[in-house]
Amino acid sequence: MVNESQSPREEEEKRLLVVLEQVSRRMRKETAVLGERRGDVVGIRQEFWEDVRMNFSDSSEVAETWTSIVQQAEVLAERERSHRVASEAVERLTKQFDSPYFARIDFAEDGREAETIYIGRASLLGEDGETFYVYDWRAPVSSLFYDHEPGPAAYRVPNGEIDGEMTLKRQFVIRGGQMKHMFDTSETVGDEILQAVLSEGSDTSMKSIVATIQKEQNFIIRDERHKLLVVQGAAGSGKTSAALQRIAYLLYRHRETLTANQIILFSPNPVFKGYISHVLPDLGEANMRQMTFRELIEARLGRRFEVEDLFAQTETLAAIDGTAEGDARERSVKYKGSDHFFMTVANYLKRLEQGGVSFRTLRYRDMTIASAEEIAERFYAIEASDGFATRAANVKRWLLERIKAWIESQMNEKWLEEAAELVDQEDIQRAYVDVRRSGGFHDEVFDDEDQMSQRLKRKVAEDAIAPIAKAVRSYRFIDAVATYTALFESRPLFASCSPDGKLPQGWEWMSLRAEETLGRKRIDHEDATPLMYLSEALEGFRRVEGDIQHVFVDEAQDYSPFQAAFLRRRYPRARMTVLGDFNQAIYVQSQESGGFGGWTRLMAPEVTAALRLTTSYRSTEQIVEFTKGILAPEDAVHISPFHRIGELPMLIPCEDAGRLSERMTADVTELLGRGYGTIGVITKTASESGDAAALLKERLSGDVPLTLVTGGSAELPKGVSVLPAYLAKGIEFDAVLVWDASSERYGKEKDRKLLYTVCTRALHILHVYYTGEASPWLPRSGG
Ligand SMILES: Nc1ncnc2c1ncn2[C@@H]1O[C@H](COP(=O)(O)OP(=O)(O)OP(=O)(O)O)[C@@H](O)[C@H]1O
Q1: Where along the chain is ATP bound (predicted)?
Q2: What's the rounded mean pLDDT across residues 684-693?
Q3: What is the end-to-end Cα distance of the chain in Å, rounded?
Q4: Looking at residue 133, what is its pLDDT?
Q5: Phi/psi of residue 457, each to 5°?
Q6: How many other CB atoms are found less than 10 A from the CB of residue 37?
Q7: 213 contacts 244 by C-beta, under 8 angstroms
Q8: I need a surface site. Which of 30, 244, 306, 628 has the fewest CB within 10 A?
């Protein structure tokens, strides 16, 4: 009921109290439950060993001891689970007490009375189980807030659309349970709040944007009609933010069927991984799986080969740039990242169904367990229509059987007897426990010397062969490298697989290079994905994550079309959300495709949506205008700043590196004094970062926190971070100080996007320092 005598503010404050009261009631209940569960858990932990019968006197007693430990552990795990649920509820309620909602809309569905809806980070249901005090921001009706101004409005529900009229749209800033601001708005999402949010200092971790999601971002967050979403967005336009909100949205909408570990996000680097890892927990959701493409390569190939990573490749290419070698390598990098090569490998795989896969002989010392020829024969004896998966799995089983038989065949061999005699007491016991665990000796009594020695010998033989068995289990009997190299050993073979029957320019060079590197177990970065594709396909994309339902790729412009196509094959059932900015395509492998070609063609047009985000929210208007000037004019047309005023970027000439570091030291001190909490000193390469950090450290006073961020760093520290451009991808700083943007360092066309990427990391302050001549890409309009 509207009370005429009260102002809207008074009314809202009263209502806030009612909600807070509800929250605190729930909180009382949940904390009581939590206390109880905690007591349970602590009790069980303390009494764990008291309730376990410990007896190691003979094998049947050991079995009972084992069972009782397992039972006790199960009870504990169950209590711990319910403790976790209660503690998550308390955590959520604590946040709700701080700020239960951020918006209100009044909406009258056609032909009905207006309803008042409050929107917050999580929903709040009254004790009656019917009154919705607050709706979750992800509820269908909440979409109205993000998509519409007051007036005719509609929102989607699973089976259609609901039309009506929005009569009021109000925003709140509530902190610590206090109403700080409140205002009605006619904008889609009020500029004032967004202004306030964007003017804040940056943090070392990313924040969620629930209260200020913009309409075009909301589309990305909620779209479920398409299986492939490809988003081209200007630097700072909220691609990563939208991706994370989308994950939170999907987890909420499909909470019965989707879990966080069925979602995987490919991140550009470890620093970025740490940077975004707080957003989902903050929204009350578990983190999705996250990995870098480099980690994927390392996991698949890194143990057996020395694999060059993308950063090393980039630095090598820079070092040999302009030489004949450099040109040839660059051509090879581009080709091996192309769709043409993907098709070639795909066609090659088809041929391999008939024959041609290389295998490795299984050997223990000089004893052959199964020869490569035998394995090949077995592999190809299975119907081609069954595909590689069935064949590989079948051969795997057969080889494991072979290994078992081989163990039996060795039982009376001298080497084994000798080895068994050397086993010490501790190992005997361990062997005994191991066998128990693996289900050995069920009801038997362990009383016979002879039996014991047989078992020991078997155990020794199993241990000896274990690395081979493990290799078999992970399909290493398939020699993927030899199979891959074969493609570069025969012109007719390559030509017959190539989609247009042609060999790429520079094939001879690639062929020599393959011999030189792959033959020595060194893998160039450009060969890593093709090799991974080939080997995973030959294994039938086995353990590969058929269970993954959503794949997110951030900084997608850095992936080659080959890598895009590979990921699609690797996660065959997944929907994909791909976000990137072609203006930040800094790697040779993706330059050909303009950064995006590979992605948009992955699925049929009717299930693909290609979207654009054009407003840059990160940087001030001055910085956005400046950074647009770095790009070619045609690349800068779709970038517009959000209206937030700041200082003009500065171009600062310096005589040499010493002077540069002196000037930078003074500026760092001054900026920290002005309250800027995160300052990024960004260099072109990692070695330059090392030099810059050393120079600055020497000059800065001891109490200034300065960190050299390296490839292994996972957390971004407060204070001054010195890091190379490729590690700064995707993250942001209050102030960015660009280390030596001279024409010597950033003079080539390909440096243009790199410089753009570096400068667009700045929220409020951008200083560009250079020695000698300034990079030709820098606009002259700096202060
Ligand atoms: N709707 C929004 N409300 C508040 N802040 C926003 C919004 N959208 C983006 N931002 C802020 O803008 C900054 C840039 O966002 P984000 O990192 O998601 O952009 P991006 O497009 O991934 O950038 P880049 O490609 O440069 O890495 C972040 O600080 C983010 O919080």
Answers
A1: 233-240
A2: 91
A3: 57
A4: 95
A5: -65, -45
A6: 19
A7: no
A8: 306
User: What is the residue whose two structure tokens read 């929210």?
Assistant: 617
Which of 524-538, 662-676, 696-710, 736-750 bottoms out in mean pLDDT, i.e. has the lowest?
Answer: 696-710
Q: Is the CB of 240 under 6 A from ligand 1?
A: yes
- Rounded Cα distance between 163 and 135, Å, is 19
Residues annotated within the binding site for ATP are: 233-240
Q: Which of 56-60, 183-187, 287-291, 752-756 has the lowest mean pLDDT?
A: 56-60
Q: Answer whether 145's CB lies under 8 Å from 169's CB.
A: yes
CATH code assigned to 621-771: 3.40.50.300
Ligand 1 centre to CA of 545 (Å) is: 30
Return left, alpha or beta for 441; rule: phi > 0 is left, psi -120 to 50 is alpha, else beta: left
Spatial distance between the Cα atoms of 229 and 503, rounded to a whole number of angstroms: 34
Q: Which residues contact 410 (CB under 8 A, 6 or more apart)?
A: 416, 461
What are the structural domain ranges in the chain?
8-98, 290-354+485-508+519-615, 362-473, 621-771
Residue nearest to atom 1 of ligand 1 (CA): 213
The answer on pLDDT for 592 being more than 70 is: no
Predicted local distance difference test score (pLDDT) of residue 595: 55
* Residue 237 in contact with ligand 1 by CB distance below 6 A: yes
Q: Mean pLDDT across the stretch 657-679?
A: 94
The full DSSP string for 573-628 is T-EEEEEE-GGG--SGGGTTTTTTHHHHTSS-GGGEEEEEE-EE-SS-HHHHHHHH
